[in-house]
Specification:
Largest sheet: 4 strands, mixed
Oligomer: single chain
Helix content: 40-55%
Number of strands: 8
Shape: extended
Low-confidence stretches: 59-126
Strand content: 5-15%
Length: about 475
């Protein structure tokens, strides 16, 4: 059987995810601190990069370059097509070195930031002590034998961030050479360290330990914790009074002592993995209008090293030329990625401020429903680009610090014929209604929905229940004070 072979040409377009494009996309997702860290690392690894200090004099090429950058400032930030001239073998290095002498990595600032207003840097980066280190430090002051110390250390390193013991205490005892009575004594020592209650296996144990070491012990409080914690959660004081034979007023007064206890004592000790927020955008009110300023603090102005420019002019051997080409391409893309990042953040922020004028003027209750598509259409970018820009970015405003994602909320209530409001505004309205309710007659989810409908916010009962649970508020039956 004869096999017939045919040749055909097919033309297609594919998006190649080059390392340069990956770097540009990654730069969009970085926070301000992460970006400055990446720039610092790149400046150490790439000798082509130099920082342009304020004392450096600008030449004609610098001003020409700045003019070109201003003319191209409206270019789309997601257009990261790599300049083909860099990859060509016939690239004129001498002409390039003469024309591309310097490049600022940051767009012109809209205002000057007063350094005196910034917090002391040393106060920001101080290292916190972990819960395990804090407990071990206290335990070293106790006179413990080797086996006792081993068990105590095992207990401490099985305590989670909330302060509770992960795993089974009996397993730790089995792996130790101590008797169970000795092991319980060691556990008791750990639980009485500061913060008191760490190493407990349940909420009841945690609160009970704190009650036992309180300055004024209350047998009634300890009994309430052991036997009536669920009744207390439901605020069923009458049931507790009936079981204990104590008056309701006495039960209420005793229950107030629980406010001094911590259900998650481990949270009282700072975690080592502390995340510090540095705003990427500042919004200031100037003459009744809101002005957006991208945070350029700590972002160096970069240029191509003049030393390597001279090397390009004088010519070099093949290996040196290949090295310079690679570092030159990397330097160019870093500078371009920084410029695009700052410009894109500014575009997105300006669009957010423009669409949320009532929020900035009147407060969070006036936050309008807004999705990524709204901003993407306004600034002419893809939704994925807007999503990357809003990731872990914070905006400092006259009314507080907000994550950019806070401004994006779907509309609720409009489908039922009412007015569309954002999910954040709905939470605020529910929280406000519950704060003013009668404790003896708490509002049901249906009643809350009915009250919201008076403001033309028409939502279903299950929607109210959903956002009430998100707020961490109990149902009406559990909130009722009997």
């Amino acid at each position: 059987m004869a096999v017939k072979l045919n040749q055909s040409l097919k033309q297609s377009q594919n998006l190649m995810m080059t390392p340069q494009l990956q770097q540009a996309i990654k730069m969009l997702t970085l926070t301000h601190l992460e970006m400055t860290s990446v720039i610092a690392e790149e400046m150490v690894e790439n000798p082509m990069l130099e920082e342009l200090s304020d004392g450096d004099n600008k030449n004609d090429s610098d001003y020409k370059l700045e003019k070109l950058e201003q003319q191209s400032a409206e270019a789309k930030s997601d257009n990261f097509d790599e300049p083909s001239v860099v990859g060509k073998d016939d690239f004129d290095f001498q002409s390039y070195a003469e024309s591309f002498e310097t490049s600022s990595s940051t767009p012109p600032s809209m205002a000057t930031q007063d350094l005196d207003e910034l917090p002391n840097y040393e106060n920001i980066v101080s290292k916190g002590q972990t819960l395990a280190e804090h407990l071990e430090w206290q335990l070293r002051m106790e006179s413990l034998a080797e086996e006792q110390w081993k068990l105590a250390e095992a207990i401490i390193h099985n305590i989670n961030d909330d302060g509770y013991l992960d795993g089974d205490f009996e397993d730790l005892v089995a792996n130790s050479k101590l008797s169970r009575e000795e092991a319980v004594e060691i556990l008791d020592k750990v639980q009485r360290l500061d913060p008191v209650g760490c190493g407990s296996s349940s909420l009841v144990d945690c609160l009970l330990i704190q009650a036992k070491v309180a300055e004024e012990r209350s047998p009634l409080l300890e009994r309430i914790i052991c036997d009536h914690l669920e009744d207390l959660q439901r605020k069923d004081f009458e049931a507790i009074a009936k079981a204990t034979g104590v008056s309701v007023d006495n039960i209420k007064d005793t229950a107030l002592l629980l406010h001094n206890f911590h259900p998650k004592p481990g949270r009282l000790v700072a975690s080592q993995d502390t995340h510090y927020v540095v705003p990427d955008i500042y919004v200031k009110e100037v003459g009744g209008e809101f002005v957006v300023q991208v945070n350029d603090d700590g972002v160096p102005r970069l240029r191509i090293s003049k030393l390597y420019q001279e090397m390009l002019k004088q010519g070099a051997n093949f290996e040196a030329k290949e090295y310079v080409i690679e570092k030159l391409r990397s330097a160019m893309w870093l500078i371009k990625s920084i410029q695009n990042r700052q410009r894109t953040i500014q575009k997105v922020s300006i669009a957010i401020v423009r669409q949320q004028q009532d929020f900035f003027k009147k407060g969070p209750k006036f936050l309008k429903p807004m999705v990524l598509k709204n901003i993407a259409n306004e600034i002419g970018m893809h939704e994925s680009t807007v999503s990357r820009v809003t990731n872990n970015k914070y905006m400092h405003t006259p009314i507080g610090l907000f994550e950019l994602k806070y401004f994006f909320n779907t509309g609720i209530g409009g489908k039922a014929g009412g007015v569309d409001i954002s999910s954040e505004v709905l939470k605020l309205k529910i929280k406000e209604l519950l704060a003013n309710e009668n404790p003896k007659k708490p509002l049901s989810d249906q009643k809350i929905a009915d009250l919201l409908s008076r403001d033309d916010v028409k939502v279903a009962r299950r929607t109210v229940a959903k956002y009430r649970e998100v707020l961490g508020i109990l149902s009406s039956s559990k909130r009722k004070v009997k």
